[in-house]
Amino acid sequence: MGKGKSRKEKDTAKRGERAEGARGTGMKKDIAAVLLFTVGLALFLALVSFSSQDRLFLDRGLPPAGNLCGKVGHYAALGLYGVLGFSALVLPIAVCTGAIRLFRDAPRRLTAVAAAAYAVLTLAVATLAQLFLGRTELASFPAGGAVGRVLCRNAEALFGAVGTALVVGACAVVALILAADLDVVAAAAAVGRAMRALGAFLFHQTREAVDRHREAVAELREAEAAEKARRAEEEAADEEARARAAVALAAGAVEVAAEEGPAGDDDPAWARELNTAPLPPEEPKEKPRRKKKEDACEARPLVVVAPAEAAAPAEEPAAAAEPAANAPAAEPARPEIVLSAAMQEKKKRKKEDEKEEPSFAYTQSGAVFTLPALGLLDKPEVVEKEVDEGGLQRTAGIIVATLKTHGVEGVIRHIRPGPVVTLYEFSPVAGVKLAKIENLDKELTMALSATRIRIIAPIPGKGVVGIEVPNRDRATVFLKDVLESETFAHAGGLLPLALGKNIEGIPYCVDLQRMPHLLIAGTTGSGKSVGLNTMILSMLYRQAPDQVRMIMVDPKMTELSIYEDIPHLLLPVVTDPQKATRALQWAVDEMERRTQILADTGSKDLKSYNAKVEKQRAQGTLFEEAELAPRPKKLVVVDVAQGETEEEAEARLAREAVDAAGGTAAPGRPASEVFAARDAASMGEPPPEFEPIEASAEYEDPTAPPPDDPVAARDQKKQPQKLPYIVVIIDELADLMMTAPREVEISLARLAQKARATGIHLMVATQRPSTDVVTGMIKNNFPARITFRLASRHDSATIINGPGAESLLGDGDMLVLTATQPVTRVQGAFVSEGEIERVVSFLKEQGRPVYDPSILKARDSGEGAGRGEDEDDPVYDQAVDLVSRMEEVSVSKLQREMRLGYNKAAKIIERMEREGVVGPPNGVKPRQVLVRPIGEARAETNV
Ligand SMILES: Nc1ncnc2c1ncn2[C@@H]1O[C@H](COP(=O)(O)OP(=O)(O)OP(=O)(O)O)[C@@H](O)[C@H]1O
């Protein structure tokens, strides 16, 4: 029994010992867990409060200012970050989790797995941190620490960057699941719940904000309505008061009038008006609205439009008619919004639209030629938009703020809205370099979210910097709009070009005569051809074909062929570059011929020549009479073709003179001057000398073929004729320059230099403004230039001597440079093909041109005669016949008289010199003629 008890006791004692032991182990574990947790927490605090700046304090023996765990914490964190980088933060989590598990008495196996998982997680985070943040400078230590750097380098070598991210990322997630004993589904659900809660919160907040905004708008509208009602009441009261005052005054005036008789001259105008008109007219309803706008404008940049002060008083007739006593009270001082000239013109035009379209029938020349009517052009209805003042003010604010950010201070004084761009006039403070503003164009473009902006620093003559910002809604300018404007109607000159509207929306026209030649450039699609068409149509709308003739060169064969066969053309539209070269040479010859005519008649230019011709025609006199008067001659032309001898010819003329004695002698012509046309006798026609001066068309026709008999033509004494203007239009200069660069360059330069006075003008367009096309020689001779959008600043400098064209918007946006005006931005007028076709067929209905194809023939084949080549040349014989009647002759005189090309005339004169008909060259003076007509020579010998 004692043995058994002792075993029982032993068992109990053992159980008690085990329980004791277990209690002791549990306590130890708890203590270890607490210590571990503390270490983990301290580590966490040391790591999150680490600051590299603390080193400065520690170096001076001071405690660190930032680290919550003092010196030890700082160094521990420094070491851990250095080794593990950001993954050091996993450590305190691992330690704290381990502490909690220890506390919960978790199985040892699980704790070991968790520890291993945390270790893997730490290394994975270090690698990922190095991979993603290694190149940034987020912290004072490497993102992945030394460990992360090594692991990342090796992993990248094995898997590449993306592979490393995937593999290491997967390891990290698995390690996290194991370490934290994470239920992935539960975690995802928790994240989802959090997102939903956040969404609901944001939605609620937004709805509240929208409701608040709506309420505020409704309140504002109510307040506005109340304000409007109040103003309406005030105005009604004012109106009534004014009417009462007027009636009282009228009554007074009538009483005075009854006492003193009719109002004398001293009475104020309003008093006199009151006698007949007791009540002032109702004020326009628009007035109060404008007042409101003006009030709103105070302390902001003034939205101006253009100087139109002169028109302002005319806009306020009612105010002017009001009694003086009312005036001061009615007009408090306030900022003024001036209506733009363009807007005024629009208003005016609206009224004029109601009038009938004026008739443009042209009746100066013999035949009536009707100029095309404006009705042939389209003018789509455009809804006029109100100026968005708020938007303009906002843009002005952005400009000022952006410039300020970049160190340029200043204010915007005026805003000038136009159809396509709006000009903001910026006044910088003193000391700002303008080049700095110019260089901020890209910054401003970005800040304004604009496509392109243009900076004009400074605007010539204004002392401000112009910033042109494209409008969001771009208006189209229609050609009809410009052609029917006052500006075009009053544009002087014979060759007005309606280009479009300037940036204030005012129609912009130039005169080609004054320019006097125009170079046009623009990349493909920039609006160059449309621009050229509007210029051509402007001239066609102004001038009849006998006043202005055109040569059109279109090597691209696309743009100008639409004008084929209009009566203004001198030639069919030239598409072959070779022929174009000849056409240019013809223009040079024509210029030489005209220069001689001007010199012979002592005319300064074509305008004064045409004026003289007009006078001569009115008086029935001739230019030549003055020259011929001192040396009357008896001229006999022997009809050698019919085998006539000199005696027979003289006898014939005597007979004819007797026959004609009873006929009409030409008024004012010397009786001794007797002419005989070469074939007159054989044709049985009355000799021309007895006819009155033949009335000819007012203008010379350059396409008329040369006279069959120049001698007879010269002697026929036709009335002088005016010379038409000639406009040469070339659509693609580059194509011509590729074919015959030297000839084209020389012809263009000669024309550009000298043709102005002779009424020949050039319009040359190109899409390649490179220096091999627009050569120095061409450029120097074309002072007036228009550029549409160009590809680069460099191209812009070639055309307008500065930047700007590269910032244009395309679609007809252009810069115009003339010799007298600074660069002006213009929105080109638009004209469609349909409109051009309508105008062209209207012109063609009135007549077709008669072309002179010889202009385009190759020089040598057309004009033949070389040195001793063509001894039987009938033209030479005619020339000798003609020259023998002159005292002196020059190449151009012969050219003019016989309607020859310059080269041909020069060759004839050379041959005449060789054959002793004319003397040697005499400097700039004409050559002396050494022969006499046959009859005259015989008469002299007999004497
Ligand atoms: N003044 C304008 N207003 C509105 N749109 C325009 C204007 N001018 C041109 N455009 C538009 O730009 C397009 C191209 O114009 P255009 O044919 O004149 O260019 P281009 O410079 O002559 O090109 P290319 O050299 O290739 O012929 C036109 O079809 C038209 O839609």
UniProtKB/TrEMBL annotation:
Residues 203-249 form a coiled coil. It is a multi-pass membrane protein. It comes from the Bacteria. Keywords: ATP-binding, Cell cycle, Cell division, Cell membrane, Chromosome partition, Coiled coil, DNA-binding, Membrane, Nucleotide-binding, Transmembrane, Transmembrane helix. It is found in: Cell membrane. Residues 1-22, 256-298, 314-335, 698-718, 854-874 are annotated as: Disordered. ATP binds at G522, T523, T524, G525, S526, G527, K528, S529. The chain crosses the membrane at residues 31-52, 72-100, 112-133, 157-178, 185-204. Residues 8-22, 857-868 have a biased composition (Basic and acidic residues). Belongs to the FtsK/SpoIIIE/SftA family. This is FtsK domain-containing protein. It comes from Anaeromyxobacter paludicola.
